[in-house]
């Protein structure tokens, strides 16, 4: 675990808002010079505290107006291995996230679709057709609010 001071936390918050901002601009926002900000950012990446840069897509603007969270319980663990199940789900482009969870369900999926009819098609033809599916619970997302992380 890396030790973070208030400036590191401020840099992380600024990067979380816009990872494409130049180091000079980031430095100015936290009271550092460009080289000092760059050194801190490099240290955060080198330590593994930060990794990659992500582009956020607006699913609705791209034509995907429905997001559904599925709780999936596998029928029997032996019919399809969890690794195979995860691999097969990875081939379904509408399945945006696969989370292996502990609790009532084995998996939580985030699925996007153009509309409810499109979601029904994906659910019936692609997800429910997978061997080993036991039960599924669907929750349609009404709205989403992003909150900053704990830093």
Short description:
The chain has 151 residues and is an alpha+beta fold.
Description:
The chain has 151 residues and is of the alpha+beta class. It has two domains: 6-47, Arc Repressor Mutant, subunit A, CATH 1.10.10; 66-140, Lrp/AsnC effector binding domain/regulation of amino acid metabolism (RAM) domain (Alpha-Beta Plaits), CATH 3.30.70.920. The protein has five helices and four strands; from the N terminus they run αααβαββαβ. The chain has helices at 6-17, 23-30, 34-47, 82-90, 116-127, and strands at 66-74, 95-100, 107-113, 133-140. It has a four-stranded antiparallel sheet. Strand 2 (95-100) and strand 3 (107-113) form a beta hairpin. The two termini are 14 Å apart. The mean pLDDT is 91.
Instruction: Characterize the overall form.
Output: elongated
Domain module tally? 2
Strand content: 15-25%
The CATH homologous superfamily name of the largest domain equals: Lrp/AsnC effector binding domain/regulation of amino acid metabolism (RAM) domain
Write the topology of this structure.
Layout: H1 6-17, H2 23-30, H3 34-47, E1 66-74, H4 82-90, E2 95-100, E3 107-113, H5 116-127, E4 133-140
Antiparallel strand pairs: 1-3, 1-4, 2-3
Helix pairs in contact: 1-2, 2-3
């Amino acid at each position: 675990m890396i030790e973070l001071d208030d400036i590191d936390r401020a840099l992380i918050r600024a990067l979380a808002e816009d990872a494409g901002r130049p180091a000079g601009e980031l430095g100015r926002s936290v009271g550092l010079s460009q080289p000092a900000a760059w050194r801190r950012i490099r240290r955060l990446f080198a330590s593994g505290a930060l990794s990659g840069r992500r582009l956020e897509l607006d699913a609705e603007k791209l034509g995907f107006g429905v997001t559904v969270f599925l709780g999936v319980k596998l029928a029997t663990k032996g019919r399809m291995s969890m690794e195979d199940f995860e691999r097969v789900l990875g081939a379904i482009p509408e399945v945006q996230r696969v989370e292996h969870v502990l609790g009532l369900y084995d998996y939580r999926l985030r699925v996007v679709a153009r509309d409810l009819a499109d979601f029904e098609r994906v659910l019936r033809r692609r997800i429910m057709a997978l061997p080993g599916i036991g039960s599924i619970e669907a929750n349609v997302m009404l709205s989403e609010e992003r909150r900053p992380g704990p830093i």
